[in-house]
Amino acid sequence: MLIGELAGRTGASQRSLRYYEEQGLLRAERDANGYRRYTTESVRVVARIRALLAAGLSTDVIRTVLPCVDGAEALEIDLCPELVRTLRRELAELDARIDAMRRSRGALAAYLG
Question: What range does the domain containing 70 cover?
């Protein structure tokens, strides 16, 4: 299928699909004229990518996590040791950002009395 059809099936923009390919998350074959050709599996891959992005993971992290992910609608994750380390690191970083935001919020609220 061409990029427009994949975009229509997944709800992802063509620009996003090109970006996923640039980031090494999505593969496409090229026709002689340079058009991208995607397989039906690409629909599931895009669903996985979008779900992982919605969970707050960066494309760098998704690149390492994607081989451990199965399913499309409800993600099934194979918790291989590398993935566990990656997800724990991401959670720790997220917790640190939440703590910093709580401190900032407290300071702003204090200014308001």
Answer: 1-78
**Residue 76 burial (CB < 10 Å; 0-12/13-18/19+)?**
exposed
Each residue's pLDDT tens digit in the chain (113 positions)? 999 999 999 999 999 999 999 999 999 999 999 899 999 999 999 998 998 898 888 999 999 888 877 655 556 666 778 788 888 999 999 999 999 999 999 999 999 98
CA distance 2 to 87: 33
11 neighbors 51 (Cβ within 8 angstroms):
no
Same domain, 74 and 28: yes
pTM, entire model:
0.77
Distance from the Cα of residue 82 to its chain's centroid: 17
Answer left, alpha or beta for residue 39, where phi above 0 means left and psi between -120 and 50 means alpha.
Answer: beta
Q: How far is CA 101 from the centre of its chain?
A: 23
Specify whether 64 is located in the same domain as 87: no
